[in-house]
Amino acid sequence: MGFFIFLSAIVIIIFVKRAKKSSNQKKNVRVRYTDEGKSYLSDSSIFNTGYSSYKRQAAKTTFYGECTSISVNGLLLVSPFVYVSSDSPHKTSALPHIIFEKSKIIQSDAEVQLHYWPSYSDIQGEARYQLLKWLSDGKNSADLNIGLLFIYFYNLEYRAIKEGKDLLPILKELIRLYNLFSFNGSFCGYAGALIGYIIFALPIEEVTPNIKSTVMDIIKSSTNYSTLKTSGINFYLNKQTVPTKENLLEYVISQPRSKNSVIPDKVGQIFKDYFIELTIRKIPDIMDNFTLQKCDLNYHWASSAGYAERDKIIKGMNPVMPSKHRNRLIKLWDKCIEDFRPYSRKINKGTEVELFDLLPSDAKDILPNKLANNLHSFFNDNKNTPVTISDFLESINSEEKLTLNFSKRLSRIVNDIGYAIEPDVSHTNRSYKTDDFIVLFEKSGELKNSSDYFTATLIFDLGMMISQADDEIHIKEVDTIENFVISNLCKNNIAKNRISKRRLLATTGKLNFSGVAKSIATRLKPKDIEPIAEYLYSVAAADGKILYAEIKAIRKIVKGFGLSQSFIDTIETKLGIAEPITSAILQSKSGVRKKGSAIPPKPNIAPEVTVNINVKKLEQLKIETSAVQNTLKNVFTEDEAEVEAIITQEIKQEAANDVTVLETKFLPFYNHIITEEAWEKPALRKIALEHGFMVDEAIESINEWSDENLGDFLVVEKDKYHVSLELLK
User: Fold this and answer.
1) To 10 degrees, what angle do helices 516-523 and 450-467 make?
2) pLDDT of 590-601, one tens digit each?
3) First CA to last CA across the chain, in angstroms?
C-alpha cells in the first residue's frame, strides 16, 4: 500500500514538471521577422508591441543635438537632433527613430514607398540615404518624403517627452519645421501638439518674445481642432487669467457640436469680427459667464514607440461657460456659417459691390467697410439732391453693366446702410440707365406693398407727362397730381415721402418718363387700358381747364397704348374738346388711293391756349380711382412675380450642383459617399481603394469642386469623415 502511494506521488511530480515545461515552451515560440532583406528568428516572450521591431538587448545610442556633429555612412550631420547607434539593428531593440550606422544605404533619389509607421531599421536603403542626405544638407528642403520627416520627428519627440532634455532648442527646431512643412496637415498636427507640450513644460521666462510671437502666429494658422487651439497655450503665453471676447471664436470652434466648415477660414477676418460682435449683441452677459480653469490634456505619441509609454499629461488651461450660454453660442456660430455661405461662393470672383450685397444684413451694420464709407460720404454731399446714376456708380468705384439684377443690387446696398433711393428699381422692376437721375434720402421704414407704390408712381408719372407737355412745369398742376396720388394711392407716410422725392425729380426736369407708357401698354390688355386713358383726360382737366398741348400729349400717349383713333374721338367728343378726327384717304404718287391713318387737323392754336371742356361730362367720365389702382396693381403683381421667377432661376442656374466637372474617376466614389452622413475612416479608405485611388486624393478633388459650387467643403475629416449633405439640398 505504501509503495503504491509512493509510486503515485512520483507520477504526479513528473506530470506537473512536464506540464510546466510545455507551458514555458509555448511562451518562447520563435517567430520570424525581417531586416535589410534577411530573415531572423526571435523569442516571442520578449516581443513588445510598443516598438516597431522585437525587443532584444537595448541598443546603445547617443543623441547628437545642437552644436554637435557625426558622420554616418560618409555623410556629415551637423546639429542633427538624432539618436545614432553603432549596434546592429537586428541584434538589439530598434526604436523607430534610431539611426543605425551599420544599416546599409543605397544612393538614389528615386521615390520611395513607406508604411504608416516607418522605422529607420526597416525602410529601404534608398530611403535611408535620402533621410541622411537631407540631414547632411541642413534640413532646409521641404522636398522630403513625409514618412522620412516623421522618423526625424520621432527623434525630437523621444528626446523631449521620454528624456525631457533639450526642450528649448527642440522647440525652436519644431517651429522651423512647422513653417517649412506647413502644407502637410498631419505633420503640423503632431508638431503643434509637441510645441504645446514643450511650451507648458518650459519655465515661462525661457520663452522669448520672438518665440512667443512666432508660436502665436502658428496658433492662429493652425486647424480649428488642433492641440494648439484647444490646450490654452495662448492664455499661458499671454499670462491671461480671464478670457477675452476674441477667445470666443477659439472656444466655439473646439466644441464637438459646432458645425464643421471651411467658410470661417475662407471668409477670414470679416467672419471672425462679425461672429464676435454679433455674439456680444445677442448674448450680452456671455463674457460674465466665460472663465478659465486649469485642466489636464493628454499628449499622444506620434511614434509607435509611444505605445510602450503612458500618455504624457499637459497641464493646460481651458475656457469654460455654462451649457446654456454654450448652446446659444454654438447656434449662433452655425447661423453665421449659413449667413456667409452666399458670400463665400463669390470670394475672388465677385466685385466689391456684389460681395457687399451678399454680406449678411447685420454684418453691413456691424463691420466697417470701404464701400459703405464711400456711400455715407456720397450721401452727406448729395442727400435730397438729384444726382445721376453714373455719379453714384463712380462714388463706389463700380463699372458694372446696369442690368436689372445689378440695379436691384444697388437698391439693396443703399437700403442696407440706412438710406432709400428714388426711383427704386426694387419697386419698379426697371433697370437704371447711366443718365437716370435719382434722389437719396434717409430711410424711415420699409414699403409693405411694392405693387401699391408702383401703381402710384405710374399714375404720378403719367400725370407729370401731361403737365410738362408744353415744356413747362406748372406748379399748380404738379400740386394737383401730387395731392391726387398721395390722397388716393399712398397708404402710408413712407409712400407719401417717396412721392415727394419723385416730385423733386419731376419739378427739376430730372425724372425719366421714357418707357412709362410702353410699360403700361405691355402689361395691360386693351380693355384695361381704356380706363387709364380716360383717367389721363380727367387728370389733365383736374383744375377745371386743359391746355391744347396737354391734349396733344394725351393723344400721343393713348396712341402709344395701342388704342384706336375712334376711341380718342369718342372721349374728346364727350368732353366737348374738339370735333372728331376721322380717318383720311391717302393718295400715293401713283394715284392709287388707300385708306390710311387719321390725319389730325393743324389748328392754329398755341400750346398754352386753354381748351374749353364740358365740366359736367368730365365728371361723368371720371372713373373710380380704386378701379384704376386695382387694374395696375394686379398686372404689376403678376409681372413682378414673373421677373422674380426669372431672377431666381438665374441664381439657381448659377449655383447648379453640376458634378460633371468632377474628375470622371471620382464620380462613382462621390455617388457612394453621399448616401451617408458619416463614414468610419477605414471603411472610406477601403471604398476609395476599391475604386483605384487614395481616399485623400478623392476627398481633395470633391472638396475643391464643392467649395467652388456649394461654398463649402462637402467632406470634413474629424473623428470620422462627415459628409455635409445639407449642402446638396
Assistant:
1) 130
2) 444 444 444 344
3) 92
